[in-house]
Amino acid sequence: MFAIFDKYRQVFLTGLQSNIVYRFNFAVRGFFSLFHLAAVVILWSAASLGGSGGIGGFSLGQTITYFVTLLILQFFISAFNEDYQISEEIRNGLINQFLLKPINYFAYRFSIFVAARLVSGLVVIVPLLIALPVLREYLEFPHDYRVLLFGLPAMAMSAVIQFSIAYCFGLLSFWFLEIQGFVILSMALETLLGGQMFPLDLLPEWAYAIARCLPFYYQMYFPAAIFTGRLTDPTLIFQGYGIQVAWVIALLLVNQVLWSRGLRRHTAVGG
Description:
The chain is mostly helical and 271 residues long. It has a two-stranded antiparallel sheet with strand order 1-2. 76% of the residues lie in helices and 1% in strands.
């Protein structure tokens, strides 16, 4: 067991070293994200002024805090291009080297994913610290340590869900030459149903109830809502954990089926 752990620890460390080389790219991406954040501040400030000073029962500061938290989470747990990397390895035949080694391809790719997100997440803090003097007046984080206790497990499972979906689309390259259409559709659904355009608790109650059953809710919105105090009821939080676990298991099963059938097809066509 320790030998297996050490194997993927080495993969993680290698991924960490290779991604540190691209830390400047992550920093630039983080700085450009500030422009998007500025647009969010302007938009929601206008929405707040147009109403009664609040947005869906939350103050402007709480809403801006939500989007800042969302930005940080994106760099820590989002799958940036893992689906395309997996697709490239399948189409170029690089996947063959993993068939001859005692290594689990999912665990290998996930170890690299964690390393990459650790680097990008830490790097994005730099531009946020630079923007902090401007953002400070808008930020209203809850002063309750329990948001970390509840939020970190949700964040960890969200990362697994994010990667598992990307891994799933990457494996479609066993059957399709291009996966871009699938990835774009997934990104559109995640943007709309994952709370990236607006906090999902602004939806009508029936729509919010449907969203809570879908994986997109747990990709980003769920941990963001906990960290920012939008979701505080322990019962609802633990229900969310349960649904997250169910989606993790379901996605792992789907990925295993795709991997097994994809390999059979890959071998049959002489891959």
